[in-house]
User: Fold this.
Amino acid sequence: MKHIPRKRFGQHFLCDPAIIDAIVEAIDPKPGQPVAEIGPGLAALTQPLVERLGRLTVIELDRDLARRLRGHAQLDVVESDVLQVDFAALAGRLGTRALRVVGNLPYNISTPILFHLLPGAGSVADQHFMLQKEVIDRMVARPATSDYGRLSVLLQWRYAMENVLFVPPASFDPPPRVDSAVVRMVPRPAPAAVDPAVLEGLVQAAFSQRRKLLRHALGRWLDSQGYNGSFDLQRRAEEVPVEEYVALAGEIRAVPVDTPATTAV
Assistant:
C-alpha cells in the first residue's frame, strides 16, 4: 500500500536517484561504522546506506513507516520522536563514542532537533543532514552578514560546518515550497568549556534587538548576571565573532561541555 505523506510529520520523501547517490558519497559510509538515521521514511537513503554499512539504526516516529522498516533484517528500529532520543546513550548502547548521524530532518522542527543533539556531540563523529537551505545558510553564516545570528553562534561553537550539496524541490515527493541543502557538521574536538544554557541566554539577548547596539538588550542581560567586565557593547550583535560570544559566556560561568543528558533512548 502506498504511504500518503503526513503533513503533521512534515513528510517530504526524497526520490531523486542522482541526489541520493550524491548524499551517500558525501557521507562516505564504511562497513561496520555505527550510524543512526533520523527519519528514514520510505528508505530512499536507508537502503544504499545499509548496503554499505551492513547494519543501520533508524529513528522513525510514524508507526506505519516504523512497521515497514522492521521488516528489514539489517535495521534496528527506534520508534520514537527524535526529540526524546538521548544520542549519547544511543552511542553507548552501540558501543561507540564516534556515532555518525544522518537524516532528512522534518523542516518544521529542524532547529529544535539541532539544539537537542548538542549535549551528545561528544559521542558523535559527524552529522549529515538535509535541511531547508535557508536554515543551513544561517548555520554556516559569518559575522557581519544578514544570515548570522543565534543559530550561527550556538552551532559554530560546537561544530565545524559546511554546506555540501544543493537539493531542488523537484527531488522530493511531494515537493516542498523551499530549496533544500545538505550540511556536514563535525564536532570540534576541544570546544571552549562554557555552559550551553548561559551561551544560549547570552546570544538570545544579543540578537533580540539585532539592529540596535548591544548595550540595550545584552547590556541589561549582563547586568542581571552580575557581569562587570569590559566587553564592548558599542557594537551590533552581528558584528561580534563567535569566539567573542563564547569567551564572554566563559567569563560568566565555566562548566564541562558535555553534560549528561537525562532523556532515555
